[in-house]
Amino acid sequence: MIKFYSFMEAIAYRANCPFCTKGLVVNDRDLVSSSYHQNYATGEAYPIYTFYIGKSTDDVMCLNPFTEELEIRYSNKFDMYGMKNIGVYNGQTFAPPNYDGLFYHALTLNCNSCCRYHFTLQIHADLGNRRLIGTYLNSETISVEEGGIVHEVRNVYSTDKTEYACFPKDGSSKRSSIPLIPLNIADPKETISRIRKLLIFS
Q1: Calpha distance 146→148 (Å, rounded)
Q2: d(CA 130, CA 82)
C-alpha cells in the first residue's frame, strides 16, 4: 500500500476526477456524517469525519483531519454529573465499552459526475491513544467505455493486484486478476490495451 504523510495529504491525493475534472466527494456509505466545526481561535470551519466503531453498536469515532486526534462518542446518554465512566440507560447504570487497540476503516472518494473514477483510503487508528496512526491508498478504479464494452480496472495496492472486468452489451461479464500494473490516467485506453495483451499471454 502507499502510505501518506498525513490524512489531509491522503484526502487531497486527487481532488478532481481525472476524466471530467469535477470534484471528488466522500462516499456517504463510509461515514456516519461529515460535519463542520468552528475553530474559535482562527474563526475558520473545519470538517469532522465520523465513523461507526462496530457493527453491533452506534458508538462512533470522530476524526479531526488536521490534528489527527480522535474522540469516542457513545450512543447511550451519560450521567449528567460529569461521571464519564458511568452511564444511565433505562434507569440502569453501566460502564461504557473501553475502546482500545487498532481500528481499520475504508474511506472512498468518488466522482459523482461521470462515475469513471474513485479511490479508496485505508485508515488506521489507535483507539487507546485516540490518534490516527496511518492513512494508506488501498485502491483506485477507472472505468472506460470502448466499442460498446465497459472496461473496469481496479488497482489494489494492499495485495499488489490489478483486477480487470469487462461488461459487453449482452449483459455478460468477464473478470481477471493479474500482477499490479501502473494506471495510465492520461490515456486509460492504453491501460486497457496493455491489460488485454497481458491476458492473452497469461
Answers
A1: 5
A2: 20
